[in-house]
Design brief:
Blueprint (H helix, E strand, L loop, with lengths): L1 H28 L2 E3 L13 E8 L2 E8 L10 E5 L7 H7 L4 E3 L11 E3 L9 E5 L9 E2 L9 H18 L8 E6 L6 H13 L8 E7 L5 H14 L5 H11 L11 H14 L21 H14 L14 H11 L2 H6 L15 H7 L8 H7 L4 E8 L7 H9 L4 E11 L2 E11 L2 E8 L11 H12 L5
Parallel strand pairs: 4-7, 4-9, 9-10, 10-11, 11-14
Antiparallel strand pairs: 1-2, 2-3, 3-7, 3-8, 5-6, 12-13, 13-14
Helix pairs in contact: 3-4, 4-12, 5-13, 6-7
Length: 474
């Protein structure tokens, strides 16, 4: 009996290194903990992990911030940025993440970081993902992977989240939500449909999908483009007489215009003269130079130098106006820093240049295969789920009236009619609520916000989300 025990112990001694190796490999695959980041003093006061999830031959980079509340109970959220091709760091720094750039006293060098008081990670764990391939730090060894469509992108995200949950099994039972911004509004309902279908088909792990949250949700290209002219009239950017003329001459259709319809063409040219110098992201803000790089590195460096000369560096002496693009320039400086990439555990040599939004992907390799996602949204009304849609009322990229129009086509029951909602006793926007059996849709506007409302009204957006996610009325 004693000899058998000795043999068993010897076997375990030899087996232990193999077990440790397997455990260490699993730990590595589940992401690397980031305790410090260049630009932030001391240890991060929240749990951040970064890593890659392999989907076929694509390596999708992600940042995962665990909820600061009750991570084993709070919602788990997959956060998708727009573009297509805008990096996960856009959501992490400018929209719902826990950090922001210090823009008030920047004087050169590596930007410093501040805790963001209105982060959604107070109430949810968030996965920020660089998707599709070619976005941020995501890459593939197969060049064909960079040619991806709307449906292909959604399918890739569906596989991504199932693989991610296998790596983080403790979150499998958490309520799961898909959050989207701007262009990814067309991707989110497709991903949701794939998840439901996958669950019903027995795919593992089962995803506890409860809803969708979409800001400035791109949904129907034609509807959004057509809505820009009535929006311009509502906001006094064009005259009533010009609007009446263009409605009559163009028969309410302002895209794909027949060039032989000279009256319509002349009306549209007159409208372009009125709005061409307007910042369509937020019609109240100045129209600043684009802080987006070109594909050529030298062109990119030159464009950033020229843009930085034109954009004011805000400080106590500069109070005239602030160009949001200045924040974006800081993100290029920070994310392309070698020590930053080491801290984020970015694989060396996989991405030559980080872009906040990859214009090459958006203009050359991405396949825009879904012109309208309204049918996907309509199909989801047959499911048990919660949806929150929110729009900035000064956004002329995806005007709020276009979102309100397609919502009206879903044939839902109106539970709460248009009314104001408040933050600290002040009107933060307006809201409506709809339902159909076990489906609920809450729609809200953010007063004074532009495209991607979280970038303009962070406090109000967090209050909106926090109430909604805990089933309180706005």
């Amino acid at each position: 009996m004693l000899s058998k025990n000795i043999i068993s112990c010897q076997f375990l001694v030899h087996l232990l290194p193999l077990l440790l190796l397997l455990l260490s490999k699993h730990a590595d695959s589940a992401g690397s903990i980031v305790e410090t980041l260049p630009g932030y003093p001391g240890n991060l006061p929240f749990k951040l992990e970064t890593g890659y999830i392999r989907v076929n031959e694509s390596e999708l980079f992600y940042l995962f911030v665990e909820s600061e509340g009750k991570p084993r109970q709070d919602p788990l959220m997959l956060y998708l940025n727009g573009g297509p091709g805008c990096s996960a760091l856009t959501g992490f720094f400018f929209q719902t993440g826990p950090l922001s750039f210090n823009t008030t006293d920047y004087s050169g060098g590596l930007p410093t970081l501040l805790l963001y008081p209105h982060t959604w990670t107070k109430s949810a764990s968030i996965i920020f993902v660089d998707e599709p391939v070619g976005t941020g730090f995501s890459y593939s060894q197969n060049s064909e992977d960079y040619y991806i469509s709307d449906t292909g992108s959604a399918h890739q995200l569906h596989l991504f989240i199932r693989k991610w949950l296998k790596e983080y099994p403790k979150f499998i039972n958490n309520p799961f939500f898909i959050a989207s911004d701007s262009y990814s509004g067309i991707i989110a309902p497709i991903v949701a449909q794939e998840i439901f279908d996958g669950n019903e088909g027995g795919m593992y792990p089962y995803i506890n999908l409860l809803g969708i949250v979409s800001g400035s949700p791109h949904t129907d290209s034609k509807l959004e483009d057509n809505s820009k002219i009535p929006f311009a009239c509502d906001m006094a950017l064009i005259s009533d007489s010009l609007y009446e003329a263009v409605k009559r001459d163009c028969n309410g259709n302002y895209i794909d215009v027949d060039v032989s319809n000279t009256a319509c063409v002349e009306d549209l040219l007159a409208i372009n003269k009125c709005v061409d110098d307007i910042n369509n992201q937020d019609i109240l803000l100045p129209k600043c130079d684009l802080a987006l790089p070109y594909s050529n590195d030298e062109q990119r460096r030159r464009s950033l130098r020229e843009a930085s000369r034109k954009l004011p560096i805000p400080n106590s002496k500069t109070q005239d106006y602030f160009c949001k693009n200045f924040e974006y320039i800081l993100s290029y400086i920070w994310a392309n820093n070698e020590t930053v990439q080491e801290a984020l555990h970015v694989r060396k040599g996989t991405v030559k240049q980080w872009y906040r939004c990859n214009l090459t992907l958006a203009h050359e390799t991405y396949i825009y295969s879904v012109a309208s996602a309204i049918d996907y949204q309509r199909n989801l009304t047959e499911r048990s789920m919660k949806v929150l849609l929110y729009s900035g009322d000064h956004d002329m990229v995806v005007p709020h009236i276009s979102t309100e129009e397609w919502i009206s086509t879903l044939k839902l029951t109106l539970d709460i009619d248009w009314r104001p909602w408040f933050v600290n006793g002040q009107v933060a926007g307006y809201t409506m609520k709809y339902s159909k059996n076990r489906y609920e849709l809450t729609y809200a506007t953010l007063k004074g916000a532009g495209h991607s409302p979280t970038e303009y009204k962070g406090k109000e957006c967090y209050n909106m989300f926090e109430r909604w996610i805990h089933r309180y009325p706005l």
